[in-house]
Write a structure and sequence with these properties.
Blueprint lengths: L22 H10 L7 H15 L3 H15 L6 E3 L6 E7 L11 H6 L3 E10 L4 E12 L4 E7 L5 H13 L3 E2 L2 H5 L17 H5 L11 E3 L16 H5 L28 E2 L2 E2 L12 H11 L10 H15 L5 E4 L5 E10 L5 E11 L5 E12 L5 E6 L5 H12 L4 E2 L2 H4 L18 H5 L11 E3 L32
Parallel strand pairs: 4-6, 13-15
Antiparallel strand pairs: 1-2, 2-3, 3-4, 4-5, 5-7, 8-9, 10-11, 11-12, 12-13, 13-14, 14-16
């Protein structure tokens, strides 16, 4: 912008850090990627132009990329794919491989101690850029749990460098992981909500997001059977250092965006559910009204002293769970408790433990409980932490609920506890707002952000990918507070 006049396509970025994505890439994105602020005809023209750019030479370029990688990594099995509609050529090479077992097969992962590292990446068809990183997949056989996360190269630095050199010889420049993960606020992609698209999704693939919260799949499911999906941490979408100026428009679109009017769950006789369908993952309409009154300080009896409330709840849980060791914790305003439900070192690949986490509010008759499982892999020390369904500990979970119920507490379901309360400032760093859980039980935690996979190898390129709740949670029906209560 010169002389006070804003050029076409230039964005105002007041309050934002400098664009984490280089201008050369942004120029390509402005040309080929539709913006949510584009007129319909402009968006259609951009999509057609993108297809004409990517599709004609897709198969030929895929053969060229895979051949170069196979030549540079002779000891690895390199596979590639060129999905029609994607804007990049994908490739993968398991870094721990055995010829007698299929790559990515359960037998292979188990034979390697429950963990497998792979080299993954994409070469863009929109420009001379590529993105490569290592990913660790973890399989816990006892619960058929799969988890995956992008990690630093660590002992595989030589293979990563060889792959970068091979693609460099074809004219590709590697985009650093942090730059590729930066959010492009108004990019309009088919499989991403507006505000969640990244430079990686625009240049390479929108179907797979390496910066998503650890992708954990388990037969135990989620607490209360809730559909807490994985996705980008909210903090990445909110923090300036992870924001790229919009492709078009005056300023980034606000996030989280408001749902369309026909998507806002109405308040029915059984709570915030679709008409004619009861949603068991949330409080009833009457319970929501009582909870709102308690948060406003209008409906609660005289509050208990926090220490007394904690001691009383701990005694009740100790009686209900005679084999568990109950400890106290939490940062307030509620009293937090943890009870060890089980632990096991029977599998040589890993050790695991399952804890019951519970909170009671000293100022209102509400409690909150869920199970947390922690698995530590024996070979590398990789630690997997996940909020799970009660599973084999269902009886103990029911006994704990009954024990706290006998003290007059009503349990807040998981979906309602992690719902944002309108108008309340966030108490957790990087959060989009304060939840029912933050206001009643613990101001410093977010149960929806528990799923996590920690490794000694860190993150690709040392990028500071923050932990946080999935942006997907804010869009789920079960996590809405009924309108008009606050």
């Amino acid at each position: 912008m010169a002389g006070g006049r804003r050029e076409e396509g230039e964005a105002v970025t007041d309050g934002l850090a400098p664009s984490p994505v280089r201008e050369e890439i942004m120029g390509v994105l402005r040309r080929y990627i539709p913006s949510a602020l584009d007129e319909p005809g402009v968006a259609i023209a951009k999509r057609k132009l993108c297809r004409r750019r990517c599709d004609p030479g897709r198969r030929r370029e895929a053969v060229r990329v895979v051949a170069a990688l196979r030549a540079a990594l002779p000891g690895l099995h390199v596979s590639g794919w060129d999905e029609r509609g994607e804007r990049g050529i994908g490739f993968e090479a398991p870094l721990t491989y055995r010829d007698d077992l299929l790559d990515e097969d359960v037998e292979l992962v188990d034979a390697l101690g429950g963990e497998m590292d792979s080299l993954k990446g994409y070469a863009s068809l929109l420009g001379p850029w590529c993105c490569l990183f290592c990913e660790r997949d973890v399989h816990v056989r006892a619960h058929d749990t799969w988890a995956g996360r992008a990690v630093g190269a660590g002992p595989h630095a030589a293979e990563l460098a060889a792959a970068c050199g091979a693609l460099g010889s074809l004219g590709y420049e590697r985009v650093p992981f942090g730059e590729a993960m930066a959010t492009v606020p108004d990019a309009d992609l088919a499989f991403k909500a507006v505000g969640e698209a990244s430079a990686y999704g625009c240049l390479f693939s929108e179907l797979f997001d390496p910066a998503a919260v650890s992708q954990i799949y388990s037969e135990l499911g989620n607490p209360d059977g809730s559909a807490i999906g994985f996705g980008r941490p909210e903090r990445m979408l909110l923090m300036p250092e992870w924001r790229t100026p919009p492709l078009v428009g005056e300023a980034p679109l606000p996030w989280p965006a408001q749902a369309p009017a026909d998507e806002v769950p109405p308040e029915g006789p059984d709570g915030p559910s679709r008409p004619g369908r009861y949603n068991p993952l949330t409080l009833s309409a009457g319970a929501w009204r009582r909870l709102a009154a308690d948060l406003a300080g209008e409906g609660s009896p005289a509050p208990l002293a926090p220490d007394y409330a904690a001691a009383r709840a701990a005694e009740a849980l100790s009686r209900a769970l005679p084999g568990a060791r109950v400890s106290l914790g939490g940062s307030g305003p509620g009293a937090g408790l943890r009870a060890r439900l089980g632990s096991s070192d029977a599998d040589w690949r890993c050790s695991e433990r399952t804890d019951l986490l519970a909170w009671v509010s000293p100022s209102a008759p509400w409690c909150f409980l869920f199970c947390e499982r922690e698995v530590t892999m024996s070979r590398t020390g990789t630690r997997l932490t996940d909020a799970v369904g009660a599973g084999p500990h269902a009886a103990a979970f029911a006994a704990a609920c009954e024990a706290l119920g006998s003290l007059g507490y009503e349990r807040v379901p998981f979906g309602s506890a992690v719902a944002y309360v309108p108008g309340r400032a966030p108490t957790v760093e990087g959060a989009a707002g304060a939840t029912v859980f933050n206001l009643l039980f613990d101001a410093g935690l977010d149960p929806a952000a528990v799923p996590w996979l920690e490794t000694a190898q860190g993150t690709p390129d040392g990028a500071d990918i923050p932990r946080g709740r999935s942006s997907h949670v804010a869009l789920l029906e079960q996590c809405w507070v009924p309108l008009g209560l606050f």
